Amino acid sequence: GLERGAKNQFSTFSNFITTINQKKEGIGNRNSPTQLVIPNIKNVRDLPPICLDVRQKQRISIDTLPQELKAPVPPEPSLPIRTKTVKDFQDDVEKAKSSGDWKAVHDFYSTTFDSFLEINAAFKKDTNSPFNTIEDSGINAKFVNVVYDALLNTPQDVQKSVLKGIINGLLQEWKGPRTKDDLRAYCILLQNPQFSNTSTYVIYAHLLRQIAALTEADHHFLVHWSKKISQRRFKQLVDRLLQFISLRLFPAKPEEFPPMVKCTWWIPSATKVLALFNAANSLISPSIISYTDFYNSTLDHIDLMEEYHNWQCYGNSHRFSFCQYPFIISIAAKKVIIQRDSEQQMISIARQSLVDKVSRRQKPDMNMLFLNVKVRRTYLVSDSLDELARKKADLKKKLKVTFVGEAGLDMGGLTKEWFLLLIRQIFHPDYGMFTYHKDSHCHWFSSFKCDNYSEFRLVGALMGLAVYNSITLDIRFPPCCYKKLLSPPIVPCDHNTLVGICDVTLDDLFQIMPELAHGLSELLSYEGNVEEDFYSTFQVFQEEFGVIKSYNLKPNGDKIPVTNQNRKEYVQLYVDFLLNKSIYKQFAAFYYGFHSVCASYALLLLRPEEVEILVCGSPELDMSALQRSTQYEGYQKTDLTIRYFWDVVLGFSLDLQKKLLHFATGSDRVPVGGMADLNFKISKSETSTNWLPVAHTCFNQLCLPPYKNKKELKQKLIIGISNAEGFGLE
């Protein structure tokens, strides 16, 4: 809020609007060509489409646009001459604070913000230069920051004069395309800290509406200019937009705002502007702020399925849905959408099975409502492969697992055990499907050729079933894998279309084979003669079953030397070969396996990082949250042993905390819903205190003997969690 103003200093804008109307009438009587017109907030349909539908297979990305768009550039009007510098302004503010005479400061603010021309005259680095490129906005950012930082500490009449000026600028009747000076003014006005106050939201909404309605070429400039804003101020802009959306959805004081039916364009306009900042954020590596900073947790409390269905039904029409802008939807909300969509598909398929059975006059069986997987422990992989291949039509039913010869009723524990054992066996180095890279601590697909890739399809189906049935898997794939898994996010109808192929870079290779990537990076920066010193060609060599095989990276690659001029092409082709071409059949089978279970438009809402979190959970640990949600059996949370336990665990290093979580649950990562979703339980073990703790990973249960002191508990716990490889099955 405004720090020095009275609580209701901007309680209404009727006096502002009245003033503007009077100005409008007076100017109109003088037949001025520039008339001030109040926007008609009821007319919603005159807005252009808010966004491109995210379901389009080839989305137009901001960074795919040409560097300079060939749009008609209107002539820039001549700017007034303003000579005040940052130091001059700071001196004026200091004098005003000491003397109490704010006239000079008031005059500066009221003049500067009275029109878009004046804004440019004050804040443009050089009024004689056009600054019409995406590389340089021409804005004196330091001056803008100083002026805005001082604004909230000025008297009310100064702050009101700024808002009056902004209204003057926004109520102009625009004709023709915007100039670059107009775009500069929009960029500067967006940073006004007054818009954090709800009493200014009517003005803020009109500013956002005008920016949202700009052409794509104008948005292109705003995006590139925005990426130059400092991290702190960029985050403030994003937070301000998120707060605006949240308070419009759930106002603390509804009477502060116009009725929702009269301002349905507020939220779409704000979301479109937020999309520009999201695009700017994605243009830089590393990004300015985390993608999670764009999440709006308020959306977790709206009817998400209605949003999802609107998006499915109306797509790229004028009907707004937050699903058109998935970056604003939190991973928790996306998980809810995916789970409910999955449940609806499960129910639909189960209902169809029931109808088919009845129509054939057969007795219904409850088992027909589930995907029933029966496996023998000694033939776990082959039995699982056979079961899933035989029951393709049932993959979207609720999973139930039975181990042959064991009297176990699957209430979730057997399903989790099946996943744990199967994943551990498939990813074992001796199995040969995946290669474990110690430097990066992740698995990657083996490039060995074989006759049958069905087991890769099984792994993909397992990952899909895990997401579908809310099981967290202990899998270590690099981020590149999840990027490929969403390429494309919907299985193409044409089976000849390539799948699992995405643009890969040296950064992707660093996440899998850092040593090799480092070598290629050295090649790119080598200052000597690459051709004479390296003597390489456009060819790679791989060992397969003891035999060295060569592959050309391009036609006649074995005859093309790598030189200083073509080394970038060589590195790019090398990386593409390793991460795309050499494993295409393996990954394609994996891709089809995953999508055989998870075929849903909801996948279009996900980033690759979010798919990883859904499959493997989040790496962020909060042991205090785990303590609050832990259940006890045989213990009370006030018992001495339990108090010892949490004292020890909260004092553990992050590495030991991860080991504890892995020991007790089978994974050192946290489900999307946080620690509370683990349903972690500590049970009293009626055994000798000489015994180590025991875990039942299928049930996220830790069995803890009643150790007599904290030192003994810590010693036994560390031994147990540090030597927890393998399963002891009774």
From TrEMBL:
InterPro entries noted in UniProt: E3A/B/C-like (IPR044611), HECT_dom (IPR000569), Hect_E3_ubiquitin_ligase (IPR035983)
Enzyme class, spelled out: transferase
Coiled coil: none
GO biological process terms held by the UniProt record: protein polyubiquitination
Keywords: Ligase, Phosphoprotein, Transferase, Ubl conjugation pathway
HECT domain location: 391-730
Record-listed E.C. numbers: 2.3.2.26
Function: E3 ubiquitin-protein ligase which accepts ubiquitin from an E2 ubiquitin-conjugating enzyme in the form of a thioester and then directly transfers the ubiquitin to targeted substrates.
Protein name listed in UniProt: Probable E3 ubiquitin-protein ligase HECTD2
Chain's gene name: Hectd2
